[in-house]
Design goal:
The protein is mainly beta and 246 residues long. The protein has a single domain, classed as outer membrane lipoprotein receptor (LolB), chain A, CATH 2.50.20.10. Helix content is 12%, strand content 41%. It has a 13-stranded antiparallel sheet with strand order 1-7-8-9-10-11-12-13-2-3-4-5-6, with helices on one face. Helix 1 packs antiparallel against helix 2. It is globular and about 50 Å long.
C-alpha cells in the first residue's frame, strides 16, 4: 500500500515521545505499587503515577481523533472455524467522536453497518444476528482511536521505553491499551468468559492504521481490516449517520 505525503501526518500524542515524558511531568503523591493485570504475562515495566497516567489517557484520547473528517476504504477478511468471508469496507470518521463503519460482501451486498457516537454503538433495526460486533471501545480501536471504556476505571499504567500500557477495570471486565511511539498499538478486553483483542499495524499519512486485526479468542474468530485508501474531508454529509431502516 502506498503512503501519502508524510508532511500531512496526523500529529502524535502531544509530540513524539510525549506520553513517556508526560509521566514524569504530572505531579502526584500516589504511586502505583501494585497493578491489576490481565494475565500472568502482563507487560513489564515501571509503574506510572495514576495522576500522570490519567493525564496521558486524556491526551491520547484527544490526539487519536482526526483533526478533520475522513473517509477510508479497506478490504476485510473474516475467518471462523468453519467459514471464511471477505469483501470491501468503508469508514467515515468525524472529528466530533462519531464514526460509521460499513462492510460489504464480494457482490456489494451489505454485511454490517454500525455507527459509533462516543460510547454508544448504533446498529440498524434489521442488523444480522450472525455478524459479531465488538464493544465500542474495541471498535474504536480498529480505526486507531483510543476511547477508554465508559464503565471502567483506570487501575494502573506501566512504561517500558517508548511502550506505555494503560489498564482499566469495571463490571467484571478488564481492559489493557498499549501505545508504542505515541500511537495506539493494541487493545484487549478480558470479560472473565473470554478474551477479545485488536492489534494495529502501520500508520498512513492521515493517522489511520494500515491494518487492524480483531480477534475473539474464545470463538476462534479473526477479522482483518487492510487499508486501501483514505482521504481527509471538509465535512461528512448528514445522511452518513442514518442507518438503513431508521
Amino acid at each position: 500500500m502506498s503512503r501519502n505525503d508524510e508532511g500531512s501526518r496526523r500529529p502524535a500524542v502531544a509530540g513524539r515521545g510525549s506520553l513517556a515524558s508526560l509521566a514524569s511531568r504530572v505531579p502526584g503523591a500516589l504511586a502505583v505499587a501494585a497493578l491489576t493485570t490481565l494475565s500472568a504475562c502482563a507487560a513489564k515495566g515501571t509503574a506510572i503515577q495514576l495522576p500522570a497516567a490519567q493525564a496521558m489517557a486524556r491526551e491520547a484520547a484527544s490526539a487519536s481523533l482526526p483533526e478533520s473528517a475522513a473517509r477510508a476504504v479497506f478490504g476485510w477478511t473474516m475467518v471462523e472455524p468453519d467459514a471464511r468471508f471477505s469483501g470491501e469496507g468503508v469508514a467515515h470518521i468525524a472529528a466530533d467522536e462519531r464514526a460509521r463503519i460499513d462492510l460489504f460482501g464480494p457482490r456489494g451486498e451489505g454485511y454490517l453497518s454500525a455507527v459509533l457516537a462516543g460510547d454508544a454503538l448504533v446498529l440498524p433495526p434489521d442488523a444480522r444476528s450472525d455478524v459479531p460486533v465488538p464493544p465500542p471501545a474495541l471498535l474504536w480501536s480498529t480505526i486507531g482511536v483510543f476511547r477508554p471504556p465508559a464503565a471502567a476505571d483506570m487501575t494502573g499504567a506501566r512504561q517500558s521505553g517508548d511502550r506505555i500500557t494503560l489498564e482499566y477495570a469495571g463490571n467484571g471486565e478488564r481492559w489493557r491499551f498499549t501505545f508504542e511511539d505515541d500511537r495506539l498499538a493494541s487493545a484487549e478486553l478480558d470479560t472473565g468468559r473470554g478474551r477479545q483483542s485488536v492489534e494495529l499495524r502501520g500508520e498512513n499519512a492521515i493517522g489511520l492504521p494500515e491494518q487492524a486485526v480483531y480477534r475473539d479468542h474464545a470463538a476462534f474468530r479473526e477479522l482483518v481490516l487492510t487499508l486501501v485508501d483514505a482521504e481527509p474531508l471538509t465535512a461528512l454529509p448528514p445522511e452518513v449517520w442514518t442507518l438503513h431502516g431508521q
